[in-house]
Structures are given as structure tokens and as C-alpha cells.
């Protein structure tokens, strides 16, 4: 099962139309893809699995002709290339369906499929030939077993149906290999079934599919074989009986930790924030119950779209909830706005630092004092001096590196921007701080500093909830890890059990049985 | 946030235009002309400041002119025909202005309607109601009816030098509307540039989402901006009613909202929100009046009035934009030259954002 290299790929009487050999691509400081090799034949469905940073996106960029590999060849129909151009990739019949769909939802299906290539009529007048357009699109929809017509508005389609539109678009471009990038990560189960049927239909038509997914069960179900990547290398080819969920997890994990993490200094205190049967807008039928204790860092892991950010927004009073209660130090609270949460000492460091965390056009000082401006007012007016004193203090405490405090916050590096977001909350009295992907896009040095700050906060008695998709970070930083899956907490792991495979199992929903047996997670 | 450079530039422009006009036609600097222009600056400046508060939030208020017409006819009707004492009538008008502004603000913040749509409807509704209120007739004061104190306050003029020297010397009589506008500007300057609310306004205008994630009640801030705009429109409706003394509801205040928007834009406000200063909008209002004055004094056909204002705004904003682009380019070149060695690679393969970016790029090829 761990045979490496393309030569051991399943033998078939058919020749592969696409062959990748020894593809290597490095970026400054990191080898993104190393000696990647694979053959793609007609009618085969290949799974591509691996964690964030394993090299999947680099491979896709190379196949799409967006990036050229440093070494290696891409062979199309027996002709070797040292990397593709975008045009070559297209004419080779490689098509992408991305997680973020690129459809115009104000147009109908047919218009989307042939956007930019519409059949025309009346010569100079260049009128779109609507009848012909629909006639051209319908066969593709039929082939894919679509239950909607070419004249349906895209805005009325479900996510899975939209993906079918994207696939129809790929077919209309004579695709031979359709690459599905995380197609099911935000689909409900019934919709996923539909998509898997579409994949089968493509296969029956002789089209190859590359299925990139974190949902390992679906990979098992849909794929003929799977390639597992870790840190840019192929760590395994799985097929037939060896293609199992557990085998993939085992291959995906097992990296060495690189960043130093500070260990907890103080014992866990009482529950500060107690969430009971909270239901968010996005997952109105999933209840979340979780306790956050004084002095702990609780990691919140899960796949993208598992409902973690929605939970954070609900707790911070940004989004309304569907039901449930939240206790703060034992007293029920209901934050109708973020202002009320801030007043109660519940803060959020949002995921989108540039769009939500900061006002990039304002100075550092103004960002830091913004949530608590009345504290700097003398009478009716704001005292610039009081603001400056606080900002100077924050700069010292958090080691914010900037030429001066009046510079645009947008001109700072990601790490320093994140420190400004933190400074904003630390200038007040935090009881609970929720970090949503606190180190995304931040360099390693600043990462360690942020981890240290989080630990210092916890040791000072603040309850810290950290949402993170970075496994290494979750395991290294957290005292306990809660894992979410489809809007629910699928399990809570104490520090001793915080291993990558355990978290991954829960994140992909494998811990469901335990949960269904009755509040299996509440004992931690 | 206080854009001194921009304000200074505008000030210089006013001086230059004024000097040119004065050289061609010395009557520009005559006491009567200055006094009259100051009066118009005062009248138009007040509601322009109100509009500026809305524009800071990234919104727009199109119903200012119609509000001025409707509140004007009601004010005249209350004091001239219904015998309501004018201080009471003034308070009623101010309250109505606040309520109208709040109604707009509530529709925009609670019902998530677009400011343009809400206030466009306001423009149509208030104009229609004003015309209906007087049955399309002119609202005015009966012959011989006077409100001495009110008239003194709103349309009077005071020669300050004369007042201080017991008329031994004289200077230009300054209209009270101009004084009043200065008071409004001073108060609003403090509100916008010195208070917590003012800072919140800028924050909401720059990025409403980020402001909300900083615990600001963005809805209330926006609501307050529309209420301020409403009350200042109400104040100017009283001044304008007393200035014109007769109100034809079908045309009174026509295009005033556009005048206010123009003054704000000239004064350095961005219609995207989050930028501008009180000094800027006042200077913008002054420049617009100087331009109108220029048309009269230089013998340009008055039909070209709007065309002149429009051209100057267009050229001014264009020049400002070009200058900003130029500065940014220079800045970028300087930074590149300085940091050529320490360049940070942004094309990191592992970041989640990079994935999306890559996806976008792959899709780009289809165009």
C-alpha cells in the first residue's frame, strides 16, 4: 500500500493520457511538492488527500498551468512538457471545479455554461442565440443526470446543483480530466450522494476525475485509488482493500512539531463561559454544549465549514442564535450585539483580520482604543494623550513593531497586525477571548509570540477559546481540544489524547457513534 | 482623519479664484457682494454639514431639498396662518427634521434598505406632500405681517466693527445666517473630530464590519448621522423660509441635496465613506457660492451656472485623484528601492488564502 512511484499504479490495457514524472516545486523556505509522480487514465477516479500544506494546491496549480515546476515533466498523450501553460492545460482537457464556485448567480444555467462563448446570430448585431444556447447546454445536463433545466436561474440552485453546472461547463470544454477541489466540504449528506453519482456518470463517459477532499469516507466511496500526500511527498498509494479511512489517516499524520509551545503554568479554574445547547443560524438543528474554564486554552478543531466560526460569531453577539443558553460566570447572558459582549468582557479576534479585525486605514493608536473610546474621553472629547499613553503601553507589552503609532495599520506585517487586534482587547478587561485562526498568514516567529501571549493570558485567568485548522497548532497550544463536525461538537479530547489521528477522526465525523451513545463528550 | 493638506489646497483654490474674479470685476470685493455671498454660504453650509455626516457613514441623503420645502411651508403656515408662536413652531420643525432623519436611518439600518433608495423615496414623498399641503400655491406671509425678533435672528446682519466701536468705524455687515453656520460648524467640528461618536462615525464609514467586530453599535451610529442631517436640514429650512419669505413648494429647495453632496465631495469627502472634515465641507460650500457669484460678476450667461460648478468639481476631484495616485506610486517606488533585499515571498503554498487565490487564478484563464 505504500509503494511509491507511478510505476506501481494499477496496470491497465489503456495508455494513460496524462503522466506526471518527478514533479518538484519549491518556494522560498519550503518544498511544496517533491518527486510527485502519477498516471491518469480514462475513466478512473483518483482521490488526492493530505492536510493543508501537503502540496495539493501546488499540484493543482501545476496542472492548471498557473505555476511551472522546478523539475519533472508533464506528459500529455505521450508528449512531454516541462510544465504546462494555461492554454496547454486547457487544450489537454484539464478542468477545475473549485470549492469557491465561479458562477454568476444572476444568470441562468445555460448562460453560465457558455459564458464568453455564447452562440451568436444576426451577424453584426451579435445577438445571443438563446434557443441554440439552451439546445447546446441541455445534453450536458442530461448526461450528468441534472434535475434542473438549462433555463433555471443559478440563484435557485443548491450547492450541489451549482457544482453540476460547473462540471457541465467543464464537459462543454471537452474535459478529459475533471479536478474537483473539496467539492463536498460544504454539502449536506443527501447532496453529497448526488455528487458522487455525477462522478460515476463522468467515469462511465470515459472521463477521469481527480477528487481532492478532506472527507475521507467519500474518497473511499468514490475513488478507484487514492494518493496520499504529506509535506509535499507522496506517502502512499491506496487502492482496493487498502483504500480505507484509517489507512489514509495513518499516512496523513505524523509530522514533527516545529514551533515551540509554552506549557500551561496554572491549573484549570472554574467554568467561565458555559454554552448549553446553543444552536446557530447556519446549523439550526445542531446543538453545541461546551464549558470554557478560567485559565485554559480550549482548542476548537474541525474541518472548514464545520460551524466553528459561526459559533464564535454567535458567542460574540454578532449573529443571532436559534436557541440555547450561555452562562457567563454562572449568570445567563444573551448578547444582542457585539457591544454587549465587549461590555461583558467577551472578546473575539476574528478570522478575517483585514476585513473584520482591523480598520486598516486608521492608525495603530486609533485601532487599539476603538472598542473602549469612552475610557479615553475627558468630558465630551477624546484625549489624544490618554490614547497615546495606552498605545505606547500596548506597543511595549506586545512588542508591536512599527515606525510609530500613527502609521496606517494596513502597512504592518500580518503578525504585527494581529498584535494590534490583540492590543485592542488587552487594553480592556478580558474574561473570555475567542481566537479564530489566530496565526493564519503569519510567519513562524510571530506565531510563537502569539502562542506565548495566549498562554500568558490563560495563566492570568482569562479563558481562551482557539479555533484553528492547523493541526500542529491545535495540538501544541491547547489544554483540551473540542472537535466540531457539521455544527456539533463531535468530541472533546484531554491533552493526553490530543493526537492528530484522534482529532481527524472526530473532524470527519467518525466519533459520531460515541456521541450518539449519549453525551459521551461531557465527561471532560 | 483631519485632512489638513486637502483643506489647505481647497482654501488656496478659493483664494486664487477669488483673486482672479476680483481683478476682473472689483465689485466682487464690495461690501454688499461679500455680505450677500456670506449669507448664501451660511444658508447652504448648514445643510451641507448635515449631508456630510451621512456621507461619512458611506450613505447618501437625497431628500434634503424636499425636506427644506416641506418643513418650510409648514413653518410659514404655523407662524403666519395658525398663530403658533415662532419659538414653538421652530421646535416643532426641528423635531420633524429629526424624525424624518431617524425614519430614514431606521429603514437603512433595521430593514437593510439602500440609503439611495430610501432617501430618493423621501425626496419624492416630501415634495409631493409639500405641494399638496399648500394645494400647489405659494406659502408666504400676509402683507404687513412681521416677526421682528425672528427676522433679526435669521435674516439680520451685524457689522461687528461698528458694534464694537459704536459706529465710529464700519466694516462689512455679516449676515446672521453666516454666524449661525459658523456656530453649527464649530459644534459639529467638535462632534466629528473630538468625540467618541465622531470617531465611531469614521470607523463605521471606513469598514462597518470591522467596526461591528470592535463592539461598536454601528446601527445606532448610522441612525444618529441621519438624524443630524435631518435636524440641520430643518434648521436651514427655517432660515431659507425667512430669507425667501415666500415658498413655491414645487421648486423651493430643488437640487439642494446635490449642492450639499457637491460641497462635501469638493471638501474631500469620499462617497465610499470614512473620509472628510468639517472644514472641508464648509470650504466646499464657500467655493460653490464663489463660483455662482463668479458667473454673475463675469457676465457669463447664468444658464451656464450649473455647467461651471460641475466642471470645477469634476476637474478638482480629478486633479485630487491624480495627485493621490502619483503620491502612491512615488511611495511604492521608494519602498521598493528601500526594501528590495527584504522582500517577503507572498506566494506561500500552505496558506488557506493562497488556495483561494490560486483557484481564482486558475479560473482566470477562461477569460
Could you give me the name of the CATH homologous superfamily of the largest domain in chain A?
P-loop containing nucleotide triphosphate hydrolases
Q: Under the CATH scheme, which class of chain B?
A: Mainly Alpha
Strand-residue proportion of chain A = 15-25%
Secondary structural class of chain B? mainly alpha
Shape of chain B: globular
Strand content of chain B: under 5%
Summarize the structure.
Chain A is α/β, with parallel strands linked by helices and 524 residues long.
Features:
heterodimer, A: 524 residues, alpha/beta, six-stranded mixed β-sheet, disordered C terminus, B: 367 residues, mainly alpha, ABC transporter involved in vitamin B12 uptake, BtuC, two-stranded antiparallel ribbon, two-stranded antiparallel sheet
What does this protein look like?
The complex is a heterodimer of chains A (524) and B (367). Chain A is α/β, with parallel strands linked by helices. Chain A folds into 3 domains: 1-93 and 177-252, Rossmann fold, CATH 3.40.50; 106-175, no CATH class; 271-516, Rossmann fold (3-Layer(aba) Sandwich). Chain A is built from 18 helices and 24 strands. A 6-stranded mixed sheet of chain A has the order 6-9-10-3-11-12, with helices on both faces. Chain A has a 6-stranded mixed sheet with strand order 18-21-22-15-23-24, with helices on both faces. In chain A, β7 and β8 (127-128) form a beta hairpin. In chain A, α5 packs parallel to α6 (189-204) and α13 crosses α14 (414-426). Chain A is globular. Chain B is mostly helical and 367 residues long. Chain B has one domain (4-291): ABC transporter involved in vitamin B12 uptake, BtuC (Orthogonal Bundle). Helix content of chain B is 71%, strand content 2%. Chain B contains 15 helices and 4 strands. A two-stranded antiparallel sheet of chain B has the order 1-4. A two-stranded antiparallel sheet of chain B has the order 2-3. In chain B, α2 packs antiparallel against α11 (218-244), α3 (64-81) crosses α11 (218-244) and α13 (278-297) packs across α14. Chain B is globular. Classes of the chains: A alpha/beta (524), B mainly alpha (367). The interface between A and B is large, with 62 and 42 residues.
Amino acid at each position: 500500500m505504500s509503494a511509491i512511484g507511478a510505476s506501481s499504479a494499477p496496470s491497465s490495457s489503456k495508455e494513460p493520457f496524462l503522466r506526471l514524472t518527478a514533479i518538484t516545486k519549491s518556494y522560498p523556505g519550503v518544498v511544496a511538492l517533491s518527486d510527485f509522480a502519477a498516471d491518469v487514465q480514462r475513466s478512473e477516479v483518483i482521490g488526492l488527500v493530505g492536510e493543508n500544506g501537503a502540496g495539493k494546491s501546488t499540484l493543482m496549480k501545476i496542472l492548471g498551468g498557473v505555476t511551472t515546476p522546478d523539475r519533472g515533466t508533464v506528459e500529455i498523450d505521450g508528449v512531454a512538457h516541462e510544465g504546462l501553460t494555461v492554454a496547454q492545460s486547457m487544450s489537454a482537457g484539464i478542468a477545475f471545479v473549485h470549492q469557491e464556485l465561479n458562477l454568476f448567480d444572476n444568470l441562468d444555467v445555460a448562460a453560465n455554461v457558455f459564458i464568453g462563448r455564447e452562440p451568436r446570430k444576426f451577424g453584426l448585431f451579435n445577438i445571443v442565440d438563446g434557443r441554440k444556447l439552451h439546445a447546446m447546454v441541455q445534453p450536458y445536463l442530461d448526461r450528468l443526470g441534472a434535475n434542473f433545466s438549462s433555463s433555471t436561474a443559478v440563484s435557485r440552485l443548491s450547492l450541489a446543483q451549482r457544482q453540476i453546472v460547473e462540471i457541465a461547463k467543464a464537459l462543454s470544454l471537452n474535459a478529459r480530466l475533471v479536478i474537483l477541489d473539496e467539492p463536498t466540504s460544504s454539502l449536506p449528506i443527501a447532496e453529497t450522494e448526488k455528487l458522487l453519482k455525477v462522478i460515476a456518470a463522468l467515469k462511465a463517459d470515459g472521463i477521469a476525475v481527480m477528487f481532492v477532499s478532506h472527507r475521507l469516507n467519500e474518497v473511499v466511496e468514490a475513488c478507484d485509488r487514492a494518493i496520499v500526500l504529506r509535506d509535499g511527498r507522496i506517502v502512499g498509494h491506496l487502492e482496493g482493500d487498502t483504500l480505507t479511512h484509517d489507512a489514509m489517516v495513518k499516512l496523513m499524520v505524523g509530522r514533527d512539531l516545529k514551533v515551540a509551545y509554552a506549557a500551561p503554568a496554572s491549573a484549570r479554574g472554574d467554568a467561565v463561559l458555559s454554552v448549553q445547547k446553543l444552536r446557530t443560524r447556519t446549523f439550526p438543528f445542531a446543538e453545541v454544549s461546551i464549558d470554557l474554564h478560567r485559565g485554559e486554552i480550549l482548542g476548537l478543531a474541525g474541518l472548514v465549514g464545520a460551524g466553528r466560526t459561526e459559533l464564535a460569531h454567535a458567542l460574540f453577539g454578532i449573529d443571532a442564535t436559534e436557541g440555547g443558553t450561555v452562562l457567563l460566570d454562572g449568570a445567563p447572558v444573551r448578547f444582542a450585539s457585539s457591544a454587549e459582549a465587549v461590555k461583558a468582557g467577551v472578546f473575539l479576534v476574528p478570522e478575517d483580520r483585514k476585513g473584520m479585525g482591523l480598520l486598516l486605514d486608521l492608525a495603530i493608536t486609533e485601532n487599539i482604543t476603538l472598542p473602549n473610546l469612552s475610557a479615553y474621553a475627558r468630558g465630551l472629547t477624546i484625549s489624544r494623550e490618554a490614547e497615546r499613553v495606552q498605545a505606547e503601553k500596548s506597543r511595549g507589552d506586545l512588542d508591536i513593531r512599527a515606525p510609530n503609532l500613527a502609521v496606517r495599520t494596513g502597512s504592518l506585517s500580518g503578525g504585527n497586525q494581529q498584535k494590534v487586534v490583540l492590543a485592542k482587547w488587552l487594553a480592556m478587561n478580558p474574561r473570555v477571548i475567542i481566537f479564530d485562526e489566530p496565526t493564519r498568514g503569519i510567519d513562524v516567529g510571530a506565531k510563537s509570540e502569539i502562542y506565548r501571549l495566549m498562554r500568558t493570558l490563560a495563566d492570568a485567568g482569562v479563558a481562551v477559546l482557539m479555533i484553528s485548522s492547523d493541526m500542529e497548532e491545535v495540538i501544541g497550544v491547547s489544554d483540551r481540544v473540542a472537535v466540531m463536525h457539521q455544527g456539533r461538537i463531535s468530541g472533546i479530547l484531554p491533552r493526553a489524547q490530543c493526537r492528530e489521528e484522534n482529532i481527524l477522526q472526530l473532524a470527519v465525523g467518525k466519533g459520531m457513534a460515541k456521541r450518539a451513545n449519549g453525551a459521551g463528550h461531557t465527561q471532560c | 482623519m483631519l485632512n489638513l493638506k486637502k483643506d489647505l489646497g481647497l482654501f488656496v483654490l478659493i483664494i486664487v479664484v477669488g483673486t482672479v474674479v476680483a481683478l476682473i470685476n472689483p465689485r466682487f470685493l464690495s461690501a454688499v457682494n461679500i455680505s450677500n455671498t456670506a449669507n448664501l454660504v451660511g444658508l447652504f453650509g448648514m445643510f451641507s454639514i448635515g449631508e456630510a455626516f451621512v456621507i461619512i457613514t458611506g450613505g447618501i441623503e437625497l431628500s434634503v431639498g424636499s425636506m427644506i420645502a416641506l418643513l418650510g411651508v409648514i413653518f410659514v403656515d404655523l407662524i403666519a396662518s395658525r398663530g403658533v408662536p415662532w419659538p414653538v413652531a421652530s421646535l416643532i420643525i426641528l423635531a420633524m427634521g429629526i424624525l424624518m432623519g431617524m425614519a430614514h436611518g431606521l429603514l437603512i439600518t433595521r430593514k437593510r434598505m439602500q440609503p439611495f433608495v430610501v432617501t430618493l423615496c423621501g425626496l419624492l414623498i416630501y415634495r409631493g406632500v409639500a405641494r399638496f399641503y399648500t394645494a400647489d400655491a405659494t406659502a408666504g406671509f400676509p402683507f404687513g405681517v412681521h416677526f421682528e425678533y425672528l427676522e433679526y435672528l435669521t435674516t439680520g446682519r451685524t457689522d461687528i466693527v461698528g458694534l464694537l466701536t459704536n459706529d465710529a468705524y464700519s466694516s462689512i455687515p455679516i449676515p446672521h445666517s453666516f454666524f449661525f453656520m459658523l456656530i453649527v460648524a464649530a459644534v459639529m467640528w467638535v462632534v466629528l473630530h473630538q468625540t467618541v461618536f465622531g470617531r465611531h462615525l469614521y470607523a463605521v464609514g471606513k469598514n462597518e464590519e470591522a467596526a461591528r467586530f470592535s463592539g461598536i453599535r454601528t446601527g445606532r451610529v448610522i441612525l444618529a448621522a441621519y438624524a443630524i442631517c435631518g435636524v440641520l436640514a430643518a434648521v436651514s429650512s427655517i432660515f431659507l423660509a425667512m430669507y425667501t419669505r415666500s415658498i413655491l413648494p414645487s421648486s423651493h429647495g430643488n437640487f439642494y441635496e446635490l449642492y450639499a453632496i457637491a460641497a462635501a465631495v469638493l471638501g474631500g469627502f469620499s462617497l465610499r465613506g470614512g473620509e472628510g472634515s468639517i472644514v472641508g465641507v464648509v470650504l466646499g460650500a464657500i467655493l460653490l457660492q464663489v463660483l455662482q457669484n463668479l458667473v454673475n460678476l463675469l457676465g457669463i450667461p447664468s444658464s451656464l451656472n450649473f455647467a461651471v460648478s460641475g466642471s470645477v468639481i469634476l476637474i478638482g476631484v480629478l486633479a485630487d485623484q491624480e495627485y493621490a495616485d502619483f503620491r502612491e506610486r512615488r511611495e511604492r517606488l521608494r519602498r521598493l528601492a528601500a526594501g528590495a533585499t527584504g522582500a517577503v515571498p507572498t506566494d506561500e503554498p500552505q496558506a488557506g488564502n493562497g488556495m483561494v487565490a490560486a483557484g481564482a487564478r486558475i479560473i482566470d484563464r477562461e477569460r
